[in-house]
From TrEMBL:
Signal peptide: none annotated. This is S41 family peptidase. Residues 53-226 form the Tail specific protease domain. Gene3D superfamilies: 2-enoyl-CoA Hydratase, Chain A, domain 1. GO terms for molecular function: endopeptidase activity; serine-type peptidase activity. One of its GO terms (biological process) is signal transduction. One of its GO terms (cellular component) is outer membrane-bounded periplasmic space. InterPro entries: ClpP/crotonase-like_dom_sf, Tail-specific_protease. PANTHER family: CARBOXY-TERMINAL PROCESSING PROTEASE CTPA, TAIL-SPECIFIC PROTEASE. Residues 128-149 are annotated as: Disordered.
Length: 251
């Protein structure tokens, strides 16, 4: 069978699965995606809001490159660290534009907020649980342990929050002093298992479901704690809640 025919057959099978998350990336598209990731690392947009609140937009990242993943998580960790002293009243983590990719550099970059505990787990068909944790990334200047797990966090999600972006949102579920705002996510909350194919393609198959740190299963779209109309200023709504939380002194 020709390679092109094999890929076409796989795509037909994925269409029959209709699970909303499994996918096939052909070699040509994979090369284009990797080239973009190598050429331009997604920017970490941070800014300080009123009342000691720090805002960060966490973008998606599609790559299989360890170097690119490492650069992303280091950039994210440093962005958090640089604003830590001013974030005495909490963080606003924006995942509304995070369409996914690879979750590990995202949660590792957010280690300062997530801490060292199990954040969630993948559960396979046999019921075996595989917990995930964030690992600390290199920083520029940090507090002694680099952690800000005592800071309140508001998480923004929406229809474009997908796949790995949803894994990040799940990682915040069950965290103390944390609330999510926005609209339902894309619903790609299964765990994919990737297989390298001849010619350079990759096949990702949904092989597990996910659950949060409190073992609440995720099926389909994530629902925010506070559902907001699309016309509402979601950043302002989340910031208002953060202002009602207890502020802490910088370490």
């Amino acid at each position: 069978m020709r390679e092109a025919d094999a890929y076409a057959a796989i795509e037909a099978l994925i269409a029959q699965l209709d699970d909303g998350h499994s996918f096939l990336m052909r070699p040509s598209r994979r090369r284009r995606v990797e080239a973009v990731a190598q050429r331009e690392l997604p920017a970490m947009q941070t800014r300080l809001l009123a009342s000691g609140i720090a805002y960060i937009d966490v973008p998606g990242l599609m790559t299989s490159s360890r170097e690119v993943s490492s650069a992303y998580q280091t950039s994210l960790a440093r962005a958090l660290d640089q604003a830590a002293a001013q974030a005495s009243c909490g963080w606003l983590v924006d995942l509304r534009h995070n369409t996914g990719g690879t979750m590990w550099p995202m949660i590792n970059g957010l280690h300062a907020l997530l801490g060292n505990v199990a954040l969630g787990s993948f559960v396979d068909a046999a019921g075996k649980q595989s917990p995930w944790r964030a690992r600390p990334a290199p920083r520029s200047t940090a507090s002694p342990d680099g952690l800000q797990t005592d800071r309140p966090v508001a998480v923004l999600i929406g229809p474009k929050t997908a796949s790995a972006g949803e894994m990040v949102a799940i990682s915040f579920r069950g965290r103390a002093n944390t609330r999510s705002f926005g609209q339902p996510s894309a619903g790609q909350t299964t765990g994919n298992r990737s297989v390298e194919l001849p010619g350079g393609g990759v096949l990702a198959i949904a092989a597990s479901y996910t659950q949060d740190r409190n073992e609440h299963r995720n099926d389909g779209r994530l629902q925010p704690d506070v559902l907001l109309d699309s016309q509402v200023d979601m950043i302002d709504a989340a910031a208002q809640w953060l202002r009602t939380q207890a502020c802490v002194r910088s370490k």
